[in-house]
Backbone:
């Protein structure tokens, strides 16, 4: 079986185009037109709305082997099980018996499947065994639609048990999901029953039926499947697979164990869904926007998400900032359409989210976007304190360590995401306005990229007068055409495997980094600058790989220059020279701000008497000043050592800052020292003291932190 045929079976299955549920009887009649630049698999073609994996209202035929057979196929082995625990998941000879359905002639051809002694399932639904007052065995219906237990789940440590199910909704469509036993043990009977009902399961009304369904979900079966807590890359049988909410993508010919996603929630809104085809998305969205650098950045970041793990790069984000109504959010929506339905007003279950989310909500979002990507809209609408903390959490790749009511620790969850943010203010300006400090490390994790490339527009090919028109064109298109190219990209990466992915990454990253403009910045930049350049390089490499794979109708030359243009805008907007660490830039900016605000109020001004050439106070006010930071003598600012450390350099390294200012010629020192001896007045008496002595030019130049021609 070739990779395209294999991808057809894994991604498309036999889904209903309207709902995304599996429908065995339906034939896929949609076909994909051929193009010389891409050969997408036909089965990726779906009618508008055919969701593959949005975790809420879109599903597929299952996570098991769907190439040949609609029912789950057993893994030959599971690396986390002993040799005695490798049964077939699709049939349960030890757990059930089959007999003719005794209820009614209309279902005479159906069969019962027994689970233990207490439950049986047929096409009519689920029934629980009861004994009435006359000691007669009866079967009470608890669901009008079938629910089949495929296996019990547990993670690779043998913990976090659950049940892997195939459910059928009232339209006869099926999907698979895993339910954690922790929900059942927590007596979430009503929550579980109501969620199943929301998914279309025909839960019979009544407390007894709800309790019986929950009891049914814990029925013992011998079959086991390994569960994972987040989507993304996972190793199984020495091969790497990609776990999604409702299925697992595997390489062609893979017959090993397929892990499944199991979280604390029954429904997982991953935002991954498909509408339209790869060809339609490329022709109608990607091709017309080929010459726009912000589109390159957003689409490239989407393609780079699954590569982050293999690139050995830390997570991080690009923040498109600039004036309103220049189409920043449209560029981000185009990027989101690689994976799913973009976040636009009136559209539910979107791939992107707003920065207005809570910190816990942002963490859950990251877990459900791991190894795929993220998109955050309108930073100005969020809370500065929450966003500052969230940037660190999202970039560090792990949820916060939290306690429980019984003084235990909640398990932490990990994730890897690369993403796009949008908003009018820069990240630094937004946080500063909210009273939050902006350490240099934060500016590396979320990089401000000015989005405006011509007056009033974030698009090189669209002037300000055309912004409204392209919005009316492309927003509806992205809601109709999305997700197919992302699914195809994942399967291509699964087929390539880690070694080939890393080889191509090295080749394409080196090609972009060798561009003259990029190489010049890299050579002059600090470690922080090089870290940001590496993130741009990863995005450029992802675009090159996608073009090589025939998924993007763009040229590598155009995308290389587009990402380089975004890098140049970032470098120009970055405070300070590229050869200065962000901490130094921020420290000098802080010193300058304190001096400007306090030079007249908290500094004693001195002068030389023209007659007697004696040192004296510049005014009566200076003679009576208290709580001062130092002195002003001519063109020099003398700062007390304690004030230098505790106020002017608060939060930064005072000696490192002083050495930088000395090297810039703005800190006057005695030989071999960072301070200088100066004569001042204390209590009216003249005397010598040691100070950090700054040249007054620091107020004009911010100590060399501005851009330099070189």
Residues:
């Amino acid at each position: 079986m070739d990779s395209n045929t294999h991808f057809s079976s894994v991604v498309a299955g036999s889904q209903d185009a309207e709902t995304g549920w599996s429908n065995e009887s339906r034939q896929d009649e949609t076909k994909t037109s051929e193009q010389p630049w891409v050969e997408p698999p036909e089965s990726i073609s779906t009618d508008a709305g055919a969701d593959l994996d949005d975790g809420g209202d879109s599903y597929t035929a299952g996570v098991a082997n769907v190439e040949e057979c609609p029912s789950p196929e057993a893994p030959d082995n599971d690396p986390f099980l002993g040799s005695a625990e490798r049964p077939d998941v699709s049939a349960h000879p030890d757990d059930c018996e089959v007999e003719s359905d005794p209820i009614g002639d209309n279902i005479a051809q159906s069969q019962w499947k027994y689970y233990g002694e207490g439950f049986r399932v047929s096409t009519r639904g689920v029934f629980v065994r009861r004994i009435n007052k006359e000691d007669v065995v009866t079967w009470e219906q608890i669901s009008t639609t079938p629910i089949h237990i495929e296996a019990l789940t547990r993670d690779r440590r043998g913990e976090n048990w659950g049940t892997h199910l195939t459910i059928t909704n009232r339209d006869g469509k099926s999907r698979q999901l895993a339910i954690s036993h922790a929900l059942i043990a927590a007596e979430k009977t009503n929550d579980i029953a109501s969620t199943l009902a929301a998914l279309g399961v025909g839960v019979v009304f009544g407390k007894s039926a709800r309790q019986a369904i929950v009891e049914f979900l814990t029925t013992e079966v011998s079959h086991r499947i390994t569960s994972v807590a987040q989507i993304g890359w996972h190793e199984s049988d020495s091969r790497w697979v990609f776990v999604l909410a409702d299925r697992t993508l595997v390489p062609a010919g893979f017959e090993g164990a397929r892990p499944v996603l199991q979280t604390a929630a029954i429904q997982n809104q991953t935002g991954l869904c498909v509408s339209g085809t790869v060809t339609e998305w490329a022709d109608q969205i990607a091709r017309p926007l080929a010459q726009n650098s912000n589109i390159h950045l957003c689409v490239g970041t989407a393609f780079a998400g699954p590569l982050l793990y293999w690139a050995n790069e830390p997570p991080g984000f690009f923040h498109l900032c600039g004036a309103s109504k220049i189409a920043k959010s449209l560029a981000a929506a185009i990027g989101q359409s690689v994976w799913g339905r973009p976040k636009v007003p009136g559209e539910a279950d979107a791939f992107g989210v707003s920065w207005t989310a809570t910190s816990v909500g942002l963490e859950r979002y990251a877990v459900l976007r791991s190894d795929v990507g993220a998109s955050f809209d309108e930073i100005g609408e969020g809370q500065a304190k929450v966003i500052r903390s969230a940037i660190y959490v999202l970039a560090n790749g792990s949820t916060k360590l939290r306690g429980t009511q019984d003084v235990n620790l909640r398990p932490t969850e990990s994730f890897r995401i690369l993403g796009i943010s949008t908003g009018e203010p820069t990240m630094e300006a937004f946080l500063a306005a909210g009273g939050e400090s902006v350490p240099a490390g934060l500016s590396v994790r979320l990089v401000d990229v000015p989005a405006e490339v011509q007056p009033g527009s974030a698009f090189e090919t669209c002037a300000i007068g055309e912004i409204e028109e392209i919005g009316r064109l492309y927003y509806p298109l992205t809601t109709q055409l999305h997700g197919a190219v992302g699914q195809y990209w994942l399967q291509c990466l699964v087929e390539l495997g880690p070694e080939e992915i890393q080889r191509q990454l090295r080749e394409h990253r080196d090609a972009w980094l060798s561009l003259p403009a990029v190489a010049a910045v890299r050579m002059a930049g600090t470690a922080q600058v090089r870290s940001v350049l590496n993130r741009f390089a990863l995005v450029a490499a992802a675009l090159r790989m996608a073009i090589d794979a025939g998924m993007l109708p763009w040229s590598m030359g155009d995308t290389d220059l587009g990402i380089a243009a975004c890098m140049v805008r970032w470098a120009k907007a970055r405070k300070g020279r590229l050869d200065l660490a962000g901490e130094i830039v921020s420290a000098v900016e802080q010193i300058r701000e304190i001096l400007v605000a306090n030079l007249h109020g908290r500094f004693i001004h001195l002068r030389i008497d023209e007659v007697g050439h004696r040192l004296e106070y510049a005014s009566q006010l200076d003679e009576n000043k208290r709580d001062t930071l130092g002195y002003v003598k001519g063109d020099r600012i003398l700062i007390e050592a304690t004030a230098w450390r505790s106020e002017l350099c608060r939060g930064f390294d005072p000696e490192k800052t002083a050495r930088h200012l000395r090297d810039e010629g703005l800190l006057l020192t005695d030989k071999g020292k960072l301070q200088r001896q100066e004569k001042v007045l204390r209590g009216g008496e003249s005397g010598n003291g040691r100070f950090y002595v700054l040249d007054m030019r620091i107020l004009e130049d911010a100590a060399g932190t501005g851009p330099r021609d070189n």
